[in-house]
Design brief:
263 residues; Rossmann fold; 9 helices; 8 strands; 15% strand; binds zinc ion
């Protein structure tokens, strides 16, 4: 897949106009990096300078293919193949694989926070790019019949004004036209903010929180499910369970970030 740029006259004019516009905007409305405070001169990461954005810790191999978490690095050893972690071996998982781009820490955590809680919708574009760069080497996007997002309860959508996962999904679809986004899942149970809950409580609360939309045809389909952050994986696992129960042949999960392993 290539975003090869063609340097035709109109695109050059657009680029120059864009630069002039950006220059003027920077002059009158200077933007500063949310992490280090330096003045931002390019808009590619919206609220972060290039240097801070480049500190985002990407998920590296070896990792667990079932939860997407990297295993701790073994300094001095040859790279080893991905293998399932002990947590995943011990529980019932409904998704077939999980692919996350980065670790939920520092700049990536801050960027997701801006999108989720500060109404900074523009950050969806660089986040989607990060996700795509992180996972596209290991995925065949054209092989999925259905692309779904983890839905928010309508109360949350009302409160926030949008579903942040959908914003990421729309951006992904612009880069990957093969993805067929469908509102196949609904959230029928509102749950309190998860950040303060323990893993066990999360699993219990999320149970039966989702339904497959009545008009969605999932039977025998290969489904790609998108979430923003995977903390315990309880939410995406519950979505995958509902999709599998509705007859999905396979469910793979992609996410912007995954929480670091606690060990
Ligand atoms: Zn910075
Ligand atoms: Zn695992």
């Amino acid at each position: 897949m290539g975003d090869s740029e063609q340097h035709s006259a109109p695109s050059t004019i657009r680029a120059v106009t864009g630069e002039v516009f950006l220059g003027l905007k920077n002059l009158f409305l200077p933007a500063f990096c949310r992490k280090c405070g330096v003045r931002i001169l390019t808009e590619e990461n919206i609220y972060f300078c290039r240097e801070c954005w480049s500190t985002i810790e990407l998920v590296t191999e070896p990792k667990c293919p079932r939860c997407g978490r990297p295993h701790s690095r073994r300094v001095g050893f040859e790279p080893i193949e991905n293998f399932m972690c002990s947590e995943c071996s011990a529980q019932k998982l409904w998704s077939d694989s999980v692919h996350a781009a980065g670790l939920h820490a520092d700049v990536l955590r801050d960027a997701v926070h801006l999108l989720k809680f500060k109404k900074k919708r523009l950050i969806a574009a660089p986040l989607a790019r990060l996700l795509l760069d992180g996972v596209r080497g290991e995925m065949d996007f054209g092989s999925y019949d259905v692309f779904v997002t983890v839905p928010l309860h309508r109360n949350r959508v009302k409160e926030r004004g949008y579903n942040q996962v959908e914003l990421i999904a729309e951006q992904l679809c612009q880069h990957v036209p093969e993805l067929k986004l469908q509102p196949a899942l609904r959230r029928v149970k509102d749950t309190p903010s998860f950040s303060l809950l323990r893993a066990q409580e999360r699993h219990e609360l999320i149970r039966n929180a989702f339904q497959v939309a009545p008009d969605a045809n999932i039977k025998g389909k290969k489904v790609l499910l998108l979430d923003d952050v995977l903390t315990t994986g309880a939410t995406s696992n519950e979505c995958a369970r509902v999709l599998r129960r509705a007859g999905a042949q396979a469910v793979d999960v992609i996410a912007l970030a995954v929480a670091r392993r606690l060990d």
